[in-house]
Amino acid sequence: MKGKYLHSSIIAALLLKALRLRGYHARTEYPVRQGPHQPAVDIYFHAARLAIAIEIELTLARIRNDLAKAKALNAGVFLIVLPDARTARAAKSRVVRLRKAMELEGVTIQVMHLGTALQWIANNCPVVTAPDHSIAT
User: Per-residue pLDDT for 13 more than 90?
Assistant: First the structure.
């Protein structure tokens, strides 16, 4: 997965672990469209007949790019996950301002920080298979 330590080794790893514990097979760096320069979302999976894409950002600099990905991918839910609540609040404001200009009225976009994203997964992604918690002895 592209990104530096906080992006890939902390945030993405925690989200992927939460999904795998619930029985989901999430794809990383899922291409948004075909072509020579393929933009990709960080995590993509299906839950309850719904395609869900997760884009992880550390700053507000790429929010516009994320919204373009949301529009192109047309996933059921597009989550933008940020490392802390303050940055997530600022990103929400930016999404509200850009949403109308980019014609994203029909796309479900949610912006949240890591803790809220983990809770969102727990609330909205039912367990598909019982996770194996057995310890081999």
Answer: yes
